[in-house]
Amino acid sequence: MSTDAEEMSEDRRKYEFRKVIEELKEYEGSGTQLVTIYIPPDKQISDVVAHVTQEHSEASNIKSKQTRTNVQDALTSIKDRLRYFDTFPPDNGIVIFSGAVDAGGGQTDMVTRTLESPPEPIQSFRYHCDSNFLTQPLEDMLTDKGLFGLIVLDRREANVGWLKGKRVEPVKSASSLVPGKQRKGGQSAQRFARLRLEAIDNFYQEIAGMADDLFVPKRHEMDGILVGGPSPTKDEFLDGDYLHHELGDLVVGKFDVSYTDESGLHDLVDSAQEVLADQEVMKDKAEMEEFFENLHTGEEATYGFGPTRKNLMMGSVDRLLLSEDLRSDVVIYECPNGHEEYEVVDSRHGDPDHVCSECGEEAEKVDRDDVIDHLMSIAEQRGTETKFISTDFEKGEQLHDAFGGIAGILRYSTGV
């Protein structure tokens, strides 16, 4: 499979997860009767079954008969779902949601959803009972963007690691042999200062070596490097050009950080939130800048459902731009004379009446589909890349509000 195809498949998978999460967040239960289980990929299914069996037994102590019954029914449903898996979960793990949700009028419906292989590996086993399903860990996975290298250092120690989405991964550490500022007896001040500078230089070279080993192989995949530590240490390190020249170009920020152990990596990420937010949206900004530039020249740009769909069908769309906040359906109509037409409606609304624009006959609904699913299916068939655009910046908002959340950058001008 090509890289573009893999990216499109990932986009679709994340979108499907996003839709399921939004649905799950709408559910509410009475009391703590909605059960969520996060199962990491290295957790044996038999151990999970044993845990669920134990929870089922302990649920018999719940005083409320209704809550007791609902929790035990949810756990039984989860055990039934676990039978479909072998010794271990699939890649990245499994999340199972089950419980009696409020259906209105004092009624409840039993809901059980299984999410296999989420976008990121599940880090630890979690069993959770509440009046809502636990979706935050999955939401964090979907907002995870970017791969950043992390370096924290002072003249005593250094740590190097990764920021993968929102997850900090310490990888390498080093301690220095730099002597303190007070010289030992018998050494001249000049000789002591020279030896200390040599030790600092050697330590900076060691830190750069760790960073080069870790980051250089991934330099084309990285979104940037963050450097933290006290002043003037981090400035000396960066100004001294110790890093590989291609890594030096990737440094997007330096920050004052008090600690340089593994906790310092987390402090660095906390200090860099504004820069990280800007970096996340930069790619979206670049896509929208190109779209508006093409739109201004009147060439190689399309927007709105109808024109964009036509261009997709022609295979002329290079990148399909979809707003992350787009929540619409497309209703497909057919009139007695065989004309097929499409109407975009709010996903929360019903199907409107439709009169064929070609012959004036009343048309009947033949299908209804999620707009994003509909367009992405065509895009995948035509080798078109799909980009989801945030509304966290002005032109991203314009895509949603002024262009219906749908646009495209064309391979060539079509006049459509």
Distance between the termini: 31 Å
**Can you tell me the number of structural domains?**
3
Structural class: alpha+beta
Instruction: Output the CATH class name of the largest domain.
Output: Alpha Beta
Note the main sheet: 5 strands, mixed
The backbone outline, from C-alpha atoms, is flat
Beta-strand fraction estimate: 25-35%
**How many H/I helices?**
12
Specify Rg, calculated over alpha carbons: 28 Å
Q: What is the architecture of the largest domain at the second tier of CATH?
A: 2-Layer Sandwich
Please count the beta strands (DSSP E, at least 2 residues each).
17
Q: Would you tell me which CATH topology of the largest domain applies?
A: Translation, Eukaryotic Peptide Chain Release Factor Subunit 1, Chain A
Give the helices and strands as they follow along the chain.
HEHHEEEHEEEHEHHEHHEHEEEEEHEHE
Mean pLDDT: 89
Layout of helices and strands:
Elements: H1 3-26, E1 34-39, H2 45-58, H3 65-82, E2 94-104, E3 107-116, E4 126-130, H4 136-143, E5 147-153, E6 157-164, E7 167-175, H5 189-215, E8 224-229, H6 233-239, H7 245-248, E9 251-256, H8 262-271, H9 273-297, E10 301-303, H10 305-314, E11 317-323, E12 328-334, E13 340-346, E14 354-355, E15 362-370, H11 371-381, E16 385-389, H12 394-402, E17 406-410
Parallel strand pairs: 5-8, 8-9, 11-16
Antiparallel strand pairs: 1-2, 1-4, 2-3, 5-6, 6-7, 10-17, 11-17, 12-13, 12-15, 14-15
Helix pairs in contact: 2-3, 10-11
Outline the structure in words:
The structure is a single chain. This protein is 40% helix and 27% strand. With 416 residues, the protein is of the alpha+beta class. It folds into 3 domains: 3-143, Translation, Eukaryotic Peptide Chain Release Factor Subunit 1, Chain A; 147-179 and 190-271, eRF1 domain 2 (Nucleotidyltransferase, domain 5); 282-410, 2-Layer Sandwich (60s Ribosomal Protein L30, Chain: A), CATH 3.30.1330. The strands form 4 sheets. It has a 5-stranded mixed β-sheet with strand order 7-6-5-8-9, with helices on both faces. Helix 2 runs antiparallel to helix 3 (65-82) and helix 10 (305-314) packs parallel to helix 11 (371-381).
